[in-house]
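Sample entry (292 residues):
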Amino acid sequence: MRSLMLKSLMITSLLSTSIFANSVNDDKVVIYETKKITSLIKRNKKVKLNSMNLVLKKDLKQNGWFGYVFNLNLDVGGKKATQKHYVFSNGEMIAPDLININSKRSFRDTLYPKLSNRYFSKEHLIAGNPNAKHTLVIFSDPLCPICVDEVPMIMKNIIDNPDNIALYYYHMPLRMHPTASTLSKASMIASNMGIKNVDYRLYNANGKYFYGEDKDMKYDPYEERDHKKALDYFNKLFKTNITMAQIKDKKWEDKLKYDQKMAEDAFVGGTPTLFFDGEIDKKRDKYEKYLK
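Predicted structure, serialized as C-alpha cells:
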C-alpha cells in the first residue's frame, strides 16, 4: 500500500529535492495526508484528484516542527484547478494549522519559498541597480486599490535611490478586475517601445482617475469589462497608438502567462506581494532601511 501510494504522487520541490531525501518523517506525512485528502475528495463526485505534489517543506524553528505545502491538482466539474494544502508536523503529530500564541499569527503566513535567481531577470528589472546588494520583487495588479495606493510610492523610492536595491516587477492582474490584463499587456508593449517608468506612471494615473480625484472619469475597475476603453485610456495617458490586435498577440499573452506562473510558483495569491532579498515581506517595508 505504501509503495502504491508513493507511486501515485509526483513529489517535487521548488527549492531543492535534497530536503526530502531519505526522510522517514516526510514519508509518513505524505502518506497520511494523501490518504486523508483522497478520502475527502471521494465524497464529492464532481471533484477528481489528479495528483498531489509536495512543493515546500520549511523548518519553523519551533521545537522540531515543520510546515509542508502540497499542490492539489484537481478536476472540478471537468475543469482543471490547483489548490494549496497546508499541514504541520513534528514527525509524530500532524496539525492543520499552527498558531504563535504570542503574536496570534498562523505559521501558514511564513510558508513561502525563497525566490531563486530566475526571478531577478533583466527583463523584469524596472528600477535600481542590477548589481545592487539587495533585491525587491513586486507582484502587482494595476487596478488593485491597495496596489494603486502603495506601489507607486515604493517604485518612486527605488527610482530616487537606485544604488542599493534592484527592483523587479511582475504583472499579476486579478480576475476581479476584468480589464487589468489589458493594462498589464499595454504596459509590457510600451516598455518594449522604450518608454521609461511605465508602471510607475500608470499606477500614479490610476490613483487619480479610478479612485476619486477625477469625478468625470467613469471607470469602475471591478465592473468595467470594455477592454477597448481601458486601452484608449492607456494610449491617451502615454500618447501611444497600441491596438487591440497587439493586446491579443500571442507574444504578449505568453509573457503575461509567464509572470502569472512565476507568481504561482512563489505561492502569491494576492496583490501587492513583496519579496525582499528573496524572502516574503508581509509588511512591505523591509526595503526602507536601505534607502539613502
